[in-house]
Amino acid sequence: MATTYDAILVRLQAAFDEIEPGCDPVLRSSDRTDFQVNGVMSLAKRLGRPPREVAEEIVERLDLDHVADVEIAGPGFLNLTLRPEFLSDQVAQLVNDERLGVVAATTPLRVVVDYSAPNVAKEMHVGHLRSTVIGDALHRLYRFQGHHVIARNHVGDWGTPFGMLIEHLVDMGEQNAIETLSIGDLDSFYRSARAKFDADEAFRERSRARVVTLQAGDPETLRLWRILVDQSVAYFSEVYGKLDILLRPIDVVGESFYNGALEGVVRDLDALGLIEDSDGAQCVFPPGFTNRDGEPLPVIVQKRDEGFGYAATDLAAIRDRVDTLAADEILYVVGTPQAQHFEMVFAVARMAGWLPDRVRCEHVNFGNVLGTDRKMFKTRSGETIKLVALLDEAIDRADAALTERDADLDGDARRQLATVVARAAIKYADLSTERQRDYVFDLDRMVAFEGDTGPYLAYAHARVRSIFRRLDAPYEPTRATFALAHPAERALALGLLGFPEAFSGALTALAPHRLCAYLFDLAQTFTSFYEACPVLNAPDEIREERLALCDLTARTLALGLELLGIEAPERM
RNA sequence: GCCCUCGUAGCUCAGCGGAUAGAGCACCGGCCUCCGAAGCCGGGGGCGCAGGUUCGAUUCCUGCCGGGGGCACCA
Q1: Among A83, A321, A499, A513, which has the highest number of CB atoms less than 10 A from its own CB?
Q2: Which residues 96-155 of chain A have a CB under 7 Å from nucleic chain B?
């Protein structure tokens, strides 16, 4: 089905095209009526004619019979009020549409979403939260649009720290180390390795030597390294499971994966004449980047000591994603501080011809997580906060809140529900603010069941679903006409019809918060309807109609939340 | 110093060049013999400052003030 918005836009466009082809009507939803058209004024300006005169001309050419009533308002706005028969028809189409109006992509794209990226042998902490949650939402949005998503978890599994980590593993004994790591105690493992490295010269020497054997591909060293990686990935999977994140072990393609391609990166850049030697380092200087002294800023592909920097790895990854994975789009869900790095790496990849113009490559950046003191979110003692600790804390609070509200829930079911609510709370709080801004992590606020929160939305859904449990027979949506006589019914219908635009708005702008805002608005529109319009006690004809609206609301909330990675329980 | 970002109500945030700048929290006032009050209805309060472009600027541009980030071998 064509979305309501599109159906109107097509007709508007036809009328505008007759006056000036390609002119954007600027159709927007309106707070004073259903839709407003803002494009007349700028068109009139270009034509050098009075706006209202142009508006009249457009209205004459506009075919909105049985779709909307048009009124010229103010300096030249067109206010559109949808006709009841059109609304009825549109809602009826929604009833039979599992996708709730979202049209699947006609040409599926191959989209690489690079997100989460924790470090091997290191705890996942709040710093990984946003990448993980935002990346997962984008993953789901693209997937639902019908694209082929290739998730990539670019874990930090290589580099100098691994000499130290492997030596520590040797010291502990493999079994002992595996036990420590398998219970997820990555922090203490890393910390003790670090402590030894800082304190013990002999250990330092061994660590340095171990890095060399690791890079040389010594089988025994690689075996030990593999233990660290496997244990860590198993642990990450647990955390993802706890957070309900789509990433699987198979999506883990860490830095080490590209080791074999790094020399080729340098060689090929050199062959293209892009490499310059600068203080012994092999660099590319993409135009337009300067350092603090106004000198050209390099992308260091190979360091003076012949090691490879992460720029080399990122370039190798781009080549792999374009050439092997045949990506049409590559998204890096990584924090804003990396902005310049990615700009420069993308620039080099474009210069080298590795990243053709047809491939959209974007740094999906995001702001920091702050504490309520507006500083980087840390514990009081200044340590980073473990992701699992954060989630557990949220679960405890949700559990307490549920206990207070519903004493009937038994322990296990309540704990299970608390987990769902906690995930909803944390994810929604993260996703509902504009991605690029810093946001304040306030557990009290996000776990609250009141206001613009995940739990509120989950509750709104559960509340709608509760209506259907009171029915004698399973509900079958069959409704074909909608009178929408009550203003609250009409408002709800209009809200439901807005889902496809909210979805595509969130997707094209890579802005999950737009979908959040839509869902919250819909939930409020529903509860207003629910207060004003009895459903089960209404006369048959109206009751059927209202039940259909309730069903659509529940489906929209559930689908919208699912696309954000949030589960909507049947009851709570 | 250069570059990038952000500055909207007491607090946390929306606002895609359009009409009277919206929510949530907090605060005040109403609403449960009736489908889940985790709710609904109503109220007070705001675009950092100064210019510019435009028929129209919270939105685009410039400068200033204030916060955050980046600026060569860690990733």
Answers
A1: A499
A2: none
